Input
Amino acid sequence: MSKRMGRQTVRCGFPPSIYTSYCIAGKKEGEGPLGAFFDEINEDARFGEDTWEKAESTLVKNTICGLLEKSGLTQDEIDYITAGDLLNQCSGSHFAIRSFGIPFFGLYGACSTMAESMSVAAMLVDGGFASKVIAATSSHFCASEKQYRFPLEYGGQRTPTAQWTVTGSGAVVIGKTSAPPYITHITTGKIIDKGITDPNNMGAAMAPAAADTILAHFDDTGFSPEEYDLIITGDLGKTGSNIFNELLKKEGLDIEKRHMDCGTEIFDHSQDAHAGGSGCGCSAVTFCGKIMKDLQDKKINNVLFMATGALMNPTSSLQGESIPSIAHALRITNQGGNV
Output
């Protein structure tokens, strides 16, 4: 029996479970509305290191160590790690994971990486290629500003559409167990480019990709929005979320009452994050913190988790290229057999 459903979606034959999750966030994130849901809040933006890049690697390493301790698993029980970040060549993840001795898939989906790493992990488990896989990602405000925009010392002005890169890392163990929540469907995104060139307006660039993936999900599966308690986007922020909902309404799909955006939720108005949060760590810490807690407490039972990514780099922006974007979605439910 084929596991494919339509062009972009696969159905897990034996839906893998999310064993447990762990997340570490920075000081600013800890002061926001979701602070109570993070496993750790680190007051030191350098995480004891002398560079921002080393700080991000330490952040990832500490998150994976915390995940293993929380789950009661050893390194030898993990078959693969799937992970990536925003630094050049995913070096934040590479340097963090080099000491674990676990087979590794390095992934880059920009801010969609948490959903991408979870998708690959779930496919590995469902396909019988692994028993337990860690899926992780991270971002760091200072490292990202230095790479994509200007070093902090420059003191550049931020536009109203700009978003604040989250300092945070999240990780989950995905494997074979009878305990919920389960990953039952995976909708892989296509690269969508509507010609947006402003790197300070990533929400506008990513919104069409998010709309394209969610339309594909419903078309491939036959599900309706009413079957979900929450439809979660990664980090469209305020600007991108408005565009996303407008695009869907033009297609006859109104999900606004069920829609939650991690970039909108992670900071409040008093924190001066402008259009909201962004970065790989935004959806990672929101999912591994609040969403997992609500699933475990049965406050919600069916969610569509869709992280979004702007696939630009510093060179492409300087050369005047547009910003291609992508979104990956997973159906996560407490009713694992109902696929």
